[in-house]
Amino acid sequence: MGGAEEKKVKVVEPGEEGGSPKASQELVDSIEKLQVIQDELEAINAKAIYEVLEVEKKFNELRKPVFSRRNEVIGSIRDFWLIAFLSHPVLGEFVSKEDEKILKHMVSLELEEAKDLKSGYSIILNFSPNPYFEDKKLTKTYCFDEVGDLSIMCEPIKWKEGKGITDGDRHEKGAKRPYTSESFFTWFSEVVWSDGRVDEIAEILRDDLWPNPLRHFQNVRFTLLIYC
């Protein structure tokens, strides 16, 4: 400023000429003390995570009979899960016309978490006997290893003859051409989703639809559409 020569401050590293051995040792001592404190904090954090998980396990057990009662009531409501899926702003995009017919036979949604609550969870769809597949239960499992890498497992759907949905194509016996659309059941059968939304759908089922399906069922527009 004002033509004055800019002054530069030189940082003297420990051991360089002009550096004070005493100052260097003080820095080393301070870093060592800081590391001890940081290790203490990490130990407390690890204990907190463990205790939070233990509390969550306890309350998961308390929730089980409540979820069972909820399933009993849902079972008395026609097309409950179909409406809940269709009215969801994201899931509804993945429900094709053929999926709608299948979801009419869905009787419950379940979420099973790993015992340690950290290494994964399973999404389970239960169905009444239907003309589409032999399975009474469809399960998709997400597993995380110690470093957080994800692996996905699912049992192939045992489609009845002429009723299979593969890669978004519905191959119905006698059809002139395959039915093509995004399909929820295509996603459920695959461990990789081409546009990267595989985790989004799983997280919606786990964190949104499973905890409170009533919120989506009560979407007036879709309820009237199905019942009227």
From TrEMBL:
GO biological process, one term: nucleosome assembly
InterPro entries referenced in this protein's UniProt entry, alphabetically: NAP-like_sf, NAP_family
Swiss-Prot/TrEMBL keywords: Chaperone, Coiled coil
A single GO molecular function term of this UniProt record: histone binding
Region (Disordered): 1-25
Bias kind Basic and acidic residues: ranges: 1-13
GO CC entries: nucleus
Segments traversing the membrane: none
Domain of life: Eukaryota
UniProt similarity note: Belongs to the nucleosome assembly protein (NAP) family.
Name of the protein in its database record: NAP1-related protein 2-like isoform X5
Gene source species: Carex littledalei
